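name: query_chain
kind: protein
chains: 1
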Amino acid sequence: MNYTLHQLKVFVTIVDCQSVTRAAELLHMTQPAVSIQLKNLQDQFDIPLTEVIGRRIHITDFGHELASLATAILSGTAEIEERMLARKGLIAGKVRFSVVSTGKYILPYYLSTFNKKYPHVELAIDVTNRSRVIESLQENGTDFALVSIAPEQLDLEEEKLMPNALWLVVGRDWAPEPSQSPYDISILKEIPIIYREKGSGTRMLLEEHTRRVAIQPRVKLELTSSEAIKQAVIAGLGASILSVHSLRAELQSGTVRMLPVKGFPLYSHWRLIWLKGKRHSPASEAFLALIRKNKEAIFQQHFAWTTPYIEA
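structure:
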């Protein structure tokens, strides 16, 4: 066997993309050069790594096994380089984040502080739904996840960042301003409620609360992102439960307003989570150390405006 790390990297990229053309684009190589590297790697094995069916490349079972092993090898070599640089006082490498959709209003402010101190570290952020975040954790496909409710089925460690308040929100023209007294929780049976998708932390909190008070909300619509829900609320389609952190612009412009209801807001915590026992890279260790040291200052600088809504 005489394959190279470069050949393994090319092959792993092909497997990830399921395309030689796309792999060439990502690797900044020509398609013939990628094909040559694939052929040179294949020549060292008696078992096929790929097969072409209908002009599409397909990875064989052995190819997937090799790609999995190659990924571990490449990760190990990257860690060697990162730790060597760390010994020289230079933090480099890559930190991967998987973030629930509302977390996009939170994480950039923590990353900004980190990026200024460690400009050589590459940051990869996947903003997705909670189910995919949990899947990334299970597959060890991310270094950190940002969620408001930690999944109970995984053995995790966490760092709490700040409290999260979820309010019942309506559009500006939904109804006249209420009196000083809050609405009774039974209003959830009367007004149309816009839900997040199943598995969403926001939806889980609302369902847990309504079960506890024995109320069956009048569900009007189900949407998969806070942005879509905000637009539906603004358009007057109904009310929804939204994190205050996603509402700064809308509250300032007056396009939405908090509906005072007994039992609201609901509370959770924004938290970074990762698999218990995970071996962090020097870059990940540096990120965690910086967050622990600076999270209070970051909150005061960027999120102090939420305090009246959290302490309501």
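note: The two ends are 67 Å apart (CA to CA).
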